[in-house]
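ESCALATION

Customer reports they have been waiting on this structure for their group meeting. Please prioritize. Original submission:
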Amino acid sequence: MLISDSMPLLWCSYVALSLVVLITGYLAIRWLPRLPRFVVTGVVAGLIWMPCSFTLPLLDADATYHGMAPAVVVAGIAFLQHDVAALGGAAMLLLLGMALGAALGVLAWWGLRRRASQHDDDAGEDRDQAPAPRREPVIG
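Update from on-call: job pushed to the front of the queue and completed.
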């Protein structure tokens, strides 16, 4: 059940908050042309959505906890704890997420650009015909 387990609820709230960040960030940089806007949004999405596994020592002597978290969180905690091994793995996943996000941004730009050019081509065929004369509205 979603409410009784804290991990699914935590992940759902993280996804909801990250969507708010992505949408407001996209709207904040609307002064940029579409390609850089999609690339920047994709890079940020790759940064905040790339998952990473982590291991934490427990109070018991040999017990450890293994889990999944966003790579940016794992990298931040590893940096604060001076854990070079965890930071290296999380940084590689962050770079991979940034590259995948940028590639998806370029793909989205290319797909929208291609669809818009097809729409312009379809509208261009209608422009070749003579415009119909204007008809005034008639009452009664």
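Sent to customer with the following note: Residues 84-127 form the longest helix (44 residues).
Escalation resolved.
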